[in-house]
Amino acid sequence: MQVFEYLFKPKKYGDKLALLGQGVSGKVELYQSGDKKYAIKTYHEKEKFETKDEYKQRVLKEYNSLQKLHHINIVQVFTIEISSNGLQIQQVMEYFPFKLKQFIKLNNNLTELYCFFKQLCNGIKYLHEQEISHRDLKLDNLMVNNKGILKIIDFDAMTQNNFQSFGIVGSKKYLAPEVYSKLSYNPIKIDIWSIGIILYYMINRKYPWDIANLNDQNYNNFYNKLITIYEFQNTNNEKMTKDLIKFISKLLDVDPETRISIKEFPNFNWFKKIKDCNHTHHLDSLNTLLSHQPSS
Asked: What are the GO MF terms of this UniProt record (predicted)?
């Protein structure tokens, strides 16, 4: 096991408080210095087949891209720290206390959830205008700060200026069918499908299928038009209005060529009715979560 030198002076980022999460590329930990909190991502050590330069280039891709992005719904990165031997890299980012999943679990008020959905769409619209696709949109990568502002995180899988991607990248419940059925696909359209799955989950608190593959019976029924997206909803509610069904059906269009783009969202009545709500201070669910936060 490679022994790394300690990168951070305690006075710079304070004390490590908790492990926030870990994944394929590394782990993220919470640090606090005074009243400031940071999310610090420590990347896994280089692969045996990589040179130091190849490792740095691969790991710094996310940081270099995020540095150029400036949008209220995109995570902000502050700096990158590289050990003197070049074998450990840590990325310092803004910290968010809540996951969007917490609001969905607490919330029966769809107006509040649609507020978050609109913020997600605003962030993705900005990315797509920069010709950037996220490629791993999922609830676990959507955070919320203590002002009710949604933030998109984890850009490891992102691609830029590339309308052709290869291979299975992302999380299976959120992946579009062409990822499994085609050698190459448009990653921008993959983001749209993932947005559709997120919206469906917001409304119904469940996924329509486990995987968008014909081996999955629920998806097979949907693909073969044996069941509509409306019929996937919970039987005890009537949340899927005609306008919403029309919109979500275009997000979850199995043909990527006819699946809508983010710039077409305002053409749909259901979407037009959602008000922009960044800097929301009146979310009942936010007040509930804030009241249960431990004091620093």
From this structure: ATP binding; protein serine/threonine kinase activity
